[in-house]
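Worked problem 6 (solution included).
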Amino acid sequence: MKLKGILNSDMAKGLADLGHMDLIAIGDCGLPIDPDKKIDFALRLGELKFIDVLEVLLEDFSVEYYYLAEEIKKENPKQEENIKKLLKDCECEYISHEDFKKKLSDIKFVIRTGENTPYSNIILRSKNIF
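Solution. The predicted structure is:
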């Protein structure tokens, strides 16, 4: 039995299969997700929280770049602030929420949370570890 790191088997396998520049996402409970790419962490409305999942993910995943919806700046600045604290050494690109949803076609998988605050979604690009 695994004793350290992420225990969710789908998430652990998904992370192990990633290469440099691959994209993954974490989404709130309302983000439209391809069922074949979904890893579901939604327990109930509001749980599990987006920021908690991001924090645990970053213990096992190296990020070099990330995307947020432009709308988060106005609609959910507290969440944006929390994200920026966790990813302070990474560059962020803001895109429209519509473009964000289109970009989901490029991801390897998306982790759905129970988060129910607006625009609590992120796309993360994996960093080369060498």
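Discussion: The mean pLDDT is 96.
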